[in-house]
């Protein structure tokens, strides 16, 4: 079936969606034109639009931008543009230029790492607390805390805090920013909490406001590819200017100094926060590209609030449908990793995270699902999404189990999607400003076709009348410690294989693995079996 035919068949479902969400969805009827003109290359979440490249390359060919660490006209040109972009970022986040400054980094992770490096850790005294749902990049800060002999490195949960919005990259759950002012209440003359907000996921489809400085975070980290799709390799740390006096410059490089002695341990650093902490040459062309991305967003989408509305309508519809899917025996197909009903974007962002089960209750491996989606041209996220705290919270995979699995050979990013009968990762569907209802309908159609069982089928796992079973990770020969890594079944000769999940042992019969090459396609014309070999 061709793509356009398929879309036509979605009319009933699309009308069902539009009946409820037409006032939120689609930027007043412009979405299809936006998709056709700007994202002809796209079939998924935030991706770069076409016209940004046209205007960016035009800008680069009409103007000369040199390394800003000089005084010549092309360098001045660059400095001016870079400063304009800094101002634009502050304006986007409603931050006053006298209260906040922008430090450019390579990505959100580098911004977090910079905070760890320049934070005024007090040896044996500074505490570090992080939310269970933190991204790996944030958990990494605990090693700085450990190095400064922190007496208290603590994971906190919602219940511990019950304290403006931040978003979990795993489930899309958003936490209240009002926690910040509550944390600040613990400040005393002698000790102070500084709050870092990881806004890398949240800022892609929602607007964070830093207008109320006293109840806003001290550090905000961002990733621009997540906001705009382009440029990549550029992030930022937005930082309160008042912190300048207490932060510690450690490593220095490039143009960050006012004066330096080459042989005495003496140097004077620049005072301005960005000049002081941006070591080396800035990624100045990409910073200029950022200006074009901001222009594009304003021209096409006008205001982030429309993006928020648009993605909220889509994610709610997706949720309702996925939740409703049942196998023939009434069992739900999806285990959804969220406690929200996806209608309130203050507590839930446009991320749908889940695992799926077969009618017999066994897990469908997330890699198997991801591979099949890829073959069908659908791009989804699969894995632990750099978020071990959420794996514990939603999949019940404890730290002890992670350590045990590692000792038994399980590595991050390998092909074992089920280990010790538990999923080692999940499926994440992330929506962006340019996602359409057709994208959602294509996904739902795919998912229903392959994973919702409508009839009871003979369960091949239950076949007992065979002599032997085999499973991956089985040690075949005790002396040589050979491990069987993967079993792939090719039920139809010359067609796509099926990876047997490592948790399942597979029967061996006289001809080999049960069901392997049991069927073949015969050409009516030649009467011969079809094969990929000529
Ligand atoms: C993506 C992401 C990061 C890491 O961002 P990079 O730009 O890849 O370093 C950190 N935290 C959250 C919440 C994210 O979604």
Task: Give a concise summary.
The chain has 18 helices and 24 strands. It is α+β, with helices and mostly antiparallel strands and 534 residues long. The strands form nine sheets. Strands 11, 12, 13, 14 and 17 form a five-stranded antiparallel β-sheet that branches. Strands 1-8-7-6 form a four-stranded mixed β-sheet, with helices on both faces. The chain has a three-stranded antiparallel β-sheet with strand order 18-23-24, with no helix packed on it.
Report on the structure:
By secondary structure, the chain is an alpha+beta fold. The protein folds into three domains: 3-38 and 303-451, Aspartate Aminotransferase, domain 1 (Alpha-Beta Complex), CATH 3.90.1150; 53-301, Aspartate Aminotransferase, domain 2, CATH 3.40.640.10; 460-534, no CATH class. Helix content is 34%, strand content 15%. The protein has 18 helices and 24 strands. The strands form nine sheets. Strands 11, 12, 13, 14 and 17 form a five-stranded antiparallel β-sheet that branches. A hairpin with a 2-residue loop joins strand 23 (506-509) and strand 24. The longest helix has 21 residues, at 304-324. The radius of gyration is 27 Å and the shape is globular. The model has no long low-confidence stretch (mean pLDDT 90). Pyridoxal-5'-phosphate binds next to helix 6. Residues 107-109, 135, 137, 169, 198, 200-201, 223, 226, 235 line the site of pyridoxal-5'-phosphate.
């Amino acid at each position: 079936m061709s793509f356009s035919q398929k879309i036509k068949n979605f009319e009933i479902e699309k009308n069902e969606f539009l009946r409820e969400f037409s006032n939120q969805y689609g930027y007043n009827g412009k979405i299809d034109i936006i998709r056709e003109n700007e994202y002809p290359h796209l079939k998924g979440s935030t991706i770069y639009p076409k016209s940004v490249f046209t205007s960016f390359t035009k800008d680069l060919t009409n103007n000369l931008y040199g390394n800003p660490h000089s005084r010549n006209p092309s360098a001045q040109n660059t400095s001016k543009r870079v400063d304009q972009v800094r101002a634009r970022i502050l304006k986007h986040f409603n931050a006053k230029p006298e209260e906040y400054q922008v430090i450019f980094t390579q990505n959100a992770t580098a911004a977090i790492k910079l905070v760890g490096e320049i934070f005024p850790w007090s040896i044996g005294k500074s505490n570090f607390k992080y939310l269970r749902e933190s991204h790996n990049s944030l958990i990494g800060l605990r090693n700085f805390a450990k190095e400064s002999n922190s007496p208290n490195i603590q994971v906190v949960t919602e219940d511990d805090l019950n304290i403006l919005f931040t978003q979990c990259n795993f489930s899309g759950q958003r936490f209240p920013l009002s926690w910040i002012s509550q944390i600040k209440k613990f400040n005393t003359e002698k000790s102070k909490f500084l709050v870092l907000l990881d806004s890398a996921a949240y800022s892609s489809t929602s607007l964070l406001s830093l207008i109320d400085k006293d109840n806003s975070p001290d550090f905000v980290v961002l990733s621009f590819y997540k906001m705009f799709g382009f440029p990549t390799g550029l992030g930022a740390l937005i930082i309160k200017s008042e912190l300048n006096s207490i932060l510690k410059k450690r490593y220095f490089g490039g143009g960050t100094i006012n004066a330096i002695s080459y042989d005495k341990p003496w140097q004077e650093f620049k005072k301005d926060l960005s000049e002081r902490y941006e070591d080396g040459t800035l990624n100045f062309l990409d910073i200029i590209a950022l200006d074009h991305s901001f222009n594009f967003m304003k021209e096409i989408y006008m205001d982030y609030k429309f993006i928020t509305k648009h993605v909220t309508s889509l994610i709610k519809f997706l949720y309702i449908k996925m939740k409703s899917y049942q196998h023939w025996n009434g069992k739900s197909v999806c285990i959804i990793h969220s406690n929200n009903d996806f209608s309130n974007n203050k507590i839930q962002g446009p991320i749908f995270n889940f695992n799926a089960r077969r009618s017999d209750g066994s897990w469908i491996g997330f890699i198997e699902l991801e591979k099949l989606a890829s073959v069908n041209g659908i791009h989804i996220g699969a894995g632990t999404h750099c978020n071990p705290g959420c794996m514990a919270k939603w999949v019940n995979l404890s730290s002890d189990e992670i350590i045990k699995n590692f000792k038994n050979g399980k590595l991050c990013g390998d092909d074992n999607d089920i280990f010790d009968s538990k999923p080692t990762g999940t499926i994440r569907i992330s929506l962006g400003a340019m996602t359409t209802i057709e994208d959602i309908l294509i996904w739902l159609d795919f998912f229903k076709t392959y994973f919702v069982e409508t009839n009871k089928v003979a369960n091949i796992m239950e076949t007992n009348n065979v002599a032997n079973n085999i499973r991956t990770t089985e040690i075949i020969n005790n002396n040589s410690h050979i491990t069987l890594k993967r079993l792939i079944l090719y039920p139809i000769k010359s067609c796509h294989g099926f990876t047997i999940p490592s948790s399942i042992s597979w029967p061996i019969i006289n001809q080999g693995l049960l069901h392997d090459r049991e069927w073949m396609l015969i050409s009516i014309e030649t009467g011969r079996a079809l094969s990929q070999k000529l």
